[in-house]
Amino acid sequence: MTGKNLFDDLPETYDQWFTTPIGRLVKTYEANMIMDLLRPAPGDRILDAGCGTGIFTLDILARKAAVVGLEISLPMLQRAKRKFEMYPFRPVIGDITNLPFADDVFDKAVSITAIEFITDAGRAIEELLRVTKPGGCLVVATLNRLGSWAVQRKERAGMGQSRIFREAFFRSPDELSDIVPLEGVVKTAIHFQRNDDPKRAMAIESEGRQKGLRTGAFVIGRWVKP
User: Fold this and answer.
1) Quick one: DSSP state of residue 225?
2) Cβ partners under 8 Å of residue 150, min gap 6
3) Rounded to the nearest 10 degrees, what angle do helices 21-38 and 198-210 cross at?
4) What is d(CA 141, CA 46) in angstroms, rounded to the nearest whole number?
5) Is residue 12 scored above 80 in pLDDT?
6) Alpha helix stretches (DSSP H) within the chain
7) What is the 3 state secondary structure string of 161-189?
8) First CA to last CA across the chain, in angstroms?
9) Tens-digit pLDDT profile for residues 151-199
């Protein structure tokens, strides 16, 4: 199954999950980490590659940056477009491994939980770096192979309950670092479980970060293009 139709029937389900108590908590922690590493500023032109329905795009737009949202699924992109009609948001259908942009055109580039669905992640990274200006940063996040969430998703996929993760490529923090040919910083978040009580989850998250655990479900890195 190709990436183009893999997510076509999921826009509403995807958005709804982030409105659940644990989904809202996940979104808050992940968004805070994305913003801390991406550091969008007013006037920045930012590529959001694999933007989906724009779950994290709004946080970037709220910092008064202009965003080009690239997505391979038209229904996902259409949902994002409807959300951001009043913002400087340009939707583009495209493939991360073959970006339809010239070299060095974006101040920053970000890709959140998209490369796990790309066979040639190295090619995707090359393309993201190509379109980023020298001195600009690249922020990439994926699902952590060392985390229990990835294990559970693979198990569910094996039982036919989650087809989108059947062919997913989960990566550890070190494996994410290895596909980017630059020195950078990689962190993890979401140390709690999907079925944890949200209040208890907050305590677990705090403890995981204090200990510097590398097993959080969400792994994210930042690299600066020379």
Assistant:
1) -
2) 143, 144, 170, 217
3) 30
4) 16
5) no
6) 3-6, 11-17, 21-38, 57-61, 74-83, 121-130, 148-158, 173-178, 198-210
7) CCHHHCCCCCECHHHHHHCCCCCEEEEEE
8) 37
9) 777 666 555 555 667 778 899 999 999 999 999 999 999 999 989 999 9
Give the strand pairing for 132-143 and 66-71.
Answer: unpaired
What confidence tens digit (pLDDT) does each residue in 92-136 have?
A: 999 999 999 999 999 999 999 999 989 899 999 999 999 999 999
Q: CA-CA distance, 149 to 135, in Å (whole number)?
A: 34
Q: Which residues contact 185 (CB under 8 A, 6 or more apart)?
A: 37, 221, 222
Q: Which pLDDT band holds residue 4 (cuts at 50, 70, 90)?
A: very low
Q: What residue has token string 């590493």?
A: 37
- Residue 14: the pLDDT is 76
Choose among 89, 91, 199, 188: nearest CA to 148.
188
Phi, then psi, of 41 in degrees rounded to 5: -130, 155
Hey, what domains does the chain have and what are their CATH numbers? Answer: 3-224 (3.40.50.150)
- Give the integer Cα–Cα distance in Å for 108 and 51: 14
Q: For 54-59, what is the mean pLDDT?
A: 96
Give the residue among 109, 103, 218 at the shortest CA–CA distance from 171. 218
* pLDDT for residue 147: 87
Specify whether the CB–CB gap between 72 and 3 falls below 8 A. Answer: yes
**Buried/exposed 97-107: b ≥16 CB within 10 Å, e otherwise:** bebebeeebbb
